[in-house]
Amino acid sequence: xxxxxxxxxxxxxPIGRYGxxxxxxxxxxxxxxxxxxxxxxxxxxxxxxxxDVIYGCANQAGEDNRNVARMAxxxxxxxxxxxxxxxxxxxxxxxxxxxxxxRAIKAGETxxxxxxxxxxxxxxxxxxxxxxxxxxxxxxxxxxxxxWRFINKLMKxxxxxxxxxxxxxxxxxxxxxxRADQDAFALRSQQRWGAAHAAGRVGGEIxxxxxxxxxxxxxxxxxxxxxxxxxxxxxxxxx
Length: 239
Known about the structure:
This protein is α/β, with parallel strands linked by helices. It has helices at about 25-40, 70-75, 95-105, 155-160, 165-175, 180-200, 235; strands at about 50-55, 85, 115, 125, 140-145, 210, 220. The strands form 3 sheets. A 3-stranded parallel beta sheet has the order 2-1-3, with helices on both faces.
């Protein structure tokens, strides 16, 4: 007999732009918000029965360091005995977290899990390596927002260390994906978001975020900040 895994509830914060509305919120605090919302709207659940919190996070260089899944659970108010683990499969980390939780349930190892992910490119720090010799006068600074840092020379020699945009160019060239087709795909994606938003189909999955403003005022952020459904093929072609 196979145990099935079900998504009982799903919630997220709105998605913000780089340097946008969410840039003032710590990454670990951001990670806690959906869990807090789950607790608030599922009062019948015994949250002590959660057997693990699994979060995907690709950066882990700043406020998301030291097992951000565990920090998110604690900050959200889950019982202290509920553990947490953070996994990194770069851009697939959040989906991998959900898959890992589902596999554990289907294997009969657990019955109730929380799975998700968090990332804040806006708050990714600059990092410095330690000196490689005594009294060294050399220094380096890496931006952890995206891409490689502390590159292994052997890795670069054997496999290359192309950035994500470079990899996209490589894939497009290898599989002969035309720029016009990519723009058409992007436009269709934006238009579909616009239609879903206008129909109210995404509102139920979003927890509004309260953001402190000057003079003690609060701003309620409840809509994805990045979509541009009014864009056109002509505008995309200029990028």
